Amino acid sequence: MYSEVNRWGEVAKIRAAMKNLGVEKKCPGSSWIEMEMKIHQFVASNKSHPASNEIYLMLAELDGKLKLAGYVPELIWGDLG
User: CB–CB of 3/70 below 8 Å?
Assistant: First the structure.
């Protein structure tokens, strides 16, 4: 999520924390979500997972809760030239 809004400092912190904890992603570019005590892995915009509808509903719900809590992503646009 942080990389989507160009918060690379936060990305680096999360990756460092994961490394310190021994957490390693076997498939970079993918995400994990826990549902009913099972870990599911998926790639952004991939709808082939059998529970993709539930996953995207949960993500939409989380996004709504973040907005209600006042979270506003910090968007920084770099020089694209």
Answer: no
d(CA 19, CA 46): 26
Residue 52, SS3?
helix
CA 31 to chain centroid, in Å, comes to 6
Closest CA to 11 of 28, 33, 34: 28
Q: Are 58 and 81 in contact (CB under 8 A)?
A: no
Residue 5 DSSP code: G
Integer-rounded Cα radius of gyration of the chain: 15
Residue 81 has pLDDT above 60, yes or no: no
Hey, how many other C-beta atoms are within 10 angstroms of the C-beta on 26? 6
pLDDT in tens, 22-76: 877 666 677 777 888 888 777 777 788 787 888 789 889 998 999 999 988 776 6
